[in-house]
């Protein structure tokens, strides 16, 4: 496994797309069967794989996105430190890529949400996606943010005053988005948050009468 990892990183640094494919496949195999081997060089591995997500060759890009999904499945919270960067790159792929790349990026975001620390995923999605000017980025960010919020639950979300207020404002904004799916996710968030007394008060305090 150690030798394969060294080879995989060498292949990923190559200019040859077929070698890059070989490197990504090797990382994916190691994640599935020898995940502990990856921990010692996780930052380097994550950077190398994430870099290939934006490859102009769609086959390499797709492989890199799927490989990130395998890393999240295998390493779970050990991937927390990589979340911000990965989310930013994956969301970038949902608005300037073919449909099959969009789908793969969304699937990997879903896998990430299920495996890393929920608060890390939530912060990354809020920072990189919810305020984005592109409609599709907001849609996918809202979809996965809703999943994280449901995982955490309204009671825990209400425990941090600053974050609670930010969530209310974001949910209201999403509920008024120009895209119907994004509006739906925003309404679902509001519906969930309003089950908690603190969020009901926050809504009246921090949202304008017009928005209410």
Number of domains: 2
- What proportion of the residues form beta strands (DSSP E)? under 5%
Q: Supply the helix-strand structural class.
A: mainly alpha
Outline: elongated
Please write the string of helix (H) and strand (E) elements: HHHHHHHHHHHHH
Tally the helices: 13
Oligomer: single chain
Helicity range: over 70%
Largest sheet: none
Overall mean pLDDT: 93
Radius of gyration: 19 Å
Number of strands: 0
- Poorly predicted tracts of residues: none
Distance between the termini: 57 Å
Protein name: TGRM2 protein
GO molecular function, one term: microtubule binding
Pfam families: CLASP_N
Organism: Campylorhamphus procurvoides
Structure characteristics:
elongated; mainly alpha; TGRM2 protein; single chain; 2 domains; 13 helices; 212 residues; CLASP_N_dom
Structure description:
It is a single chain. The chain is an all-alpha fold and 212 residues long. It has helices at 2-12, 17-33, 35-39, 42-53, 58-75, 83-93, 99-115, 118-130, 135-152, 154-157, 161-174, 180-193, 197-206. Helix 9 (135-152) packs parallel to helix 12 (180-193). The longest helix is centred in the first third of the chain and has 18 residues, at 58-75. The radius of gyration is 19 Å and the shape is elongated. The termini are far apart. The mean pLDDT is 93.
Write the layout of secondary structure elements.
Blueprint: H1 2-12, H2 17-33, H3 35-39, H4 42-53, H5 58-75, H6 83-93, H7 99-115, H8 118-130, H9 135-152, H10 154-157, H11 161-174, H12 180-193, H13 197-206
Concise synopsis of the structure shown:
The protein contains 13 helices and no strands.
């Amino acid at each position: 496994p150690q030798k394969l990892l060294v080879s995989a990183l060498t292949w990923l640094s190559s200019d040859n797309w077929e070698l890059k494919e070989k490197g990504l496949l090797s990382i994916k195999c190691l994640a599935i069967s020898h995940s502990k081997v990856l921990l010692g060089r996780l930052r380097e591995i994550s950077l190398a794989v994430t870099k290939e997500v934006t490859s102009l060759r769609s086959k390499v890009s797709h492989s890199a996105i799927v490989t990130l999904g395998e890393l999240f499945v295998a390493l779970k919270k050990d991937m927390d430190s990589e979340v911000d960067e990965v989310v930013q790159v994956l969301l970038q792929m949902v608005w300037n890529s073919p449909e099959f790349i969009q789908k793969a990026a969304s699937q990997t975001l879903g896998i990430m949400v299920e495996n890393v620390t929920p608060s890390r995923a939530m912060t990354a999605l809020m920072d990189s996606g919810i305020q984005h000017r592109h409609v599709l980025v907001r849609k996918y960010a809202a979809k996965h943010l809703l999943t994280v919020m449901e995982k955490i639950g309204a009671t825990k979300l209400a425990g941090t005053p600053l974050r609670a207020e930010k969530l209310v404002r974001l949910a209201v904004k999403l509920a008024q988005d120009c895209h119907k799916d994004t509006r739906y996710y925003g309404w679902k968030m509001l519906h969930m948050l309003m089950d908690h007394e603190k969020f009901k008060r926050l809504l009246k305090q921090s949202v304008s009468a017009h928005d209410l």
